[in-house]
Amino acid sequence: MSNVKIDPSTLGELETKLVTIKRVTKVTKGGKNMKFTALVVVGDRNGHVGYGLGKSIEIPEAIRKGEEEAKKNMIFVPRDEANSIPYTTKGVAGRASVLLMNAKEGTGIIAGGSTRAVLELAGIQNIRTKSLNSNNKNNVVAATIAGLKTLYTPEEIAQKRGKTVEEILG
Predict the structure, then answer these.
(1) pTM (two decimals)
(2) At what angle do helices 137-149 and 113-122 cross, to 10 degrees?
(3) Straight-line distance from the first to the last Cα atom of the chain, in angstroms, rounded to the nearest whole number
(4) Hey, which residues does 90 pair with through a beta bridge?
């Protein structure tokens, strides 16, 4: 099944992309407390990707925490022979939704910055996307991952339906 969590120790070299850093201030009786949040995406460009949100007083520590969380939340993304997704799907997280459409060879990655970071580190090279309803980077990344989690390989679909792969693909 494609949405099974992956053990990061079994993977090769992982690449990290920092999507955003935000400064967050909490006002208390004693004054203002400043912290940083870092949204980080981790992947091996070979079908494995994850994301995490790290929070800390210092930026490098927030990035490190986000990276650790991303490694814990890794998923496998099935790809077809054109390095695209097998079929069109939609991911929803919070108010954000992302439409992921498969594309033929030579299309490239047509996506916004947050979605692009996830797709590049997943190893997808040909895809069209459309971000709908919200441009909150945390929710857009989460919606992209949610959409990729719903994907199955043709072999998994054939097994579920009790058919052969040739019958499924036509």
Answers:
(1) 0.89
(2) 40
(3) 22
(4) 99
